Amino acid sequence: MNNNLLFEAALSVIKPWYIDHVEFDATKKRLDIFIDFERGAKFSSEEKGYDDQYGVYDTEQKTWRHLNFFEHECYLHCRTPRIKLDEQTIRLVSPPWAGVNKGFTLLFEALLIQLCKQMPVRVVSRMIKETDQKIWRVIQKYVDLTRELSDFSHVTAVGMDETSRAKGHDYITLFVDLDERKTLFVADGKNHEVVDRFEQDLWEHNGSAENITDISCDMSPAFIKGVRKNFPNAEITFDKFHIIKLINEAVDKVRKMEVKNDPLLRGAKYLFLKNESNLTNRQIEQLSKIKLSGSHLKSLRALQIRESFQDIYQAPTEASFVFLLKKWYFWATHSRLEPMKEAAKTIKSHWDGVVAWKRSQINNGILEGLNSIVQAARSRAKGFRNPRYYKTIVYLTTGKLDFQVMNPCVGTFSG
Predict the structure, then answer these.
(1) Is residue 292 one of the residues assigned to a domain?
(2) 240-285: per-residue pLDDT in tens?
(3) FRET partner for 217 with CA separation of 20 to 30 A, picked from 33, 82, 147, 171?
(4) 76, 105 in Cβ contact below 8 A?
(5) Cα distances (Å, whole numbers) of residue 207 to 152, 155, 177, 233, 260
(6) Same domain, yes or no: 198 and 100
(7) Could you give the dihedral angle defined by the CA atoms of residues 181, 185, 186 and 187, in that order, rounded to the nearest 10 degrees?
């Protein structure tokens, strides 16, 4: 087998295409492969209404970056035919190796997608010696085109939560399919209008607002307003992680009121915010000393109220859940701890959505997991003012998008 045939086999170059010649520069560590097509070859068009085979009208010289051969950069060059479909229509033929974006092969784009799922774009840029902008164009196009083909007709249970694009500001809201455990939509902001935009995006992807039966969210008035306006059949479940966060904040307020007068509480913030099962041995010992101190600490009473609330979620039936919640509410509102009373009253004002959890059994736990991925994605979009880059990375890493509908080579480098 001569060298040309060897490269044809390696690159899956088949008739009417063939490798004309190969140039190798050891000094530049570069391999250039020149591809041509057989004389008299005819080509089809992907354009609707043109189903024949067409002869070559003229050609254009095109170049694509391909996967490296060992440490050598590889480029494919082709005398690419143009075909004349009718008197007014001339189209450039897309060779089978050509990627979705100008200048890259399908295999090279598949590698880029996989690399950008795992590491920041700026790192990938240095690895492959291509500009950040070119890489962003690739992943944006893949994400945008694949999302256009996504089908949301099966979606019935949705989780929604906001997270910051940058610390302290620039919020985005994530809408997640709780059954498929994937991000459906990313919206700028966290007001009621983000729910309007999600409903529109759902409709654009064959989904239906009427199909949504359950939505899990926090107790944000904006989210509640948006859900009630756009999803008439959805029962709202207030996410238990956010409710416990509300109670944790109340516990911490009680601790802060006492820490000035009791040295035992100094440096003990996380003893009161974490479940005992998540404490380190040193933290468990420190908490035990506080409990055994004989002090009638309000912070310990607040902690007991928090732990009792968490136990309610273990109730076997909805009736027992409601019974325990009522008992807890009475205890918290008669605790003479203002922060705990305020938290209990907030829960009371959202009572139906809290109780709905026992029926729906849904929560934003998956969103908490995705959120950690999203926060890690900050570094992948770091250094760019365009917020679209951040959303693109969120879709790339948490959207479970099927890029193989665009590029069958995607997945070649996974695992």
Answers:
(1) yes
(2) 888 999 999 999 898 888 877 776 666 667 667 677 777 677 767 7
(3) 147
(4) yes
(5) 5, 7, 12, 14, 55
(6) no
(7) -140
